[in-house]
Design a protein that fits this description.
With 111 residues, this protein is of the alpha+beta class. The protein has three helices and five strands. A hairpin with a 5-residue loop joins β2 and β3.
Length: 111
């Protein structure tokens, strides 16, 4: 009986730890960079690439964030909002789900 009680206590601790970890994963975060298209990526992650990025997007390419720090492409779930911010540096606020940001806000990054 004592063994069963100890196992239940361990299971409860593991479950509590998993819940805390999951809660941390859902916290909003900020990323900075440029919105570009997934086809050309870093090549269009600048003011000069705006026209090409929008042309590719209108042809079906997804818009993504090319991050400042680690120079990676990260998906954006709100394509309509992302399209408004192609051509200038941005700060994206949201939560990361795999390799896609669930966007809560995109704003122009002030220099």
């Amino acid at each position: 009986m004592k063994k069963l009680g100890a196992m239940a206590a361990v299971a409860a601790l593991v479950l509590a730890g998993a819940m805390i970890y999951a809660a941390d994963e859902a916290k909003p975060a900020n990323w900075t960079g440029w919105i570009t298209d997934e086809t050309c990526g870093a090549k269009n992650a600048n003011a000069e690439g705006k026209g090409c990025a929008l042309k590719c997007h209108n042809a079906g390419a997804k818009l993504v964030l090319y991050t400042d720090g680690d120079k990676k492409l990260v998906g954006l779930d709100n394509q309509e909002e992302a399209a408004k911010h192609v051509g200038h540096p941005v700060m994206v606020t949201g939560t990361l789900d795999g390799n896609t940001i669930k966007v809560s806000k995109i704003e122009e990054k002030k220099s």
